[in-house]
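Fig. S4 source data, part A: sequence.
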Amino acid sequence: MKKQEIVTFKVDEPLFKMIQEIPNRSEFIRSAILTALDSICPLCSGSGTLTPNQKQHWQDFSARHAIETCDECNERHLVCLSRGRR
């Protein structure tokens, strides 16, 4: 088994009080981090902003794609304009 590393981070008092009640905080935090990492935007890597080059790539891509809201789940998603809409 590989050696595990210890990571620490600061939280405000309300969050600290909330996580104190969790029976296995370490497992909960690991699971939350893995879930969050699995949901990171593939374009901006979770930064919320695009570099100038990424923005140009996005503009090129978005000329052939649209952002629409799903009628079933109400989430936004990309639709390829060359395939027709569902």
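Fig. S4 source data, part B ends here. The mean pLDDT is 91.
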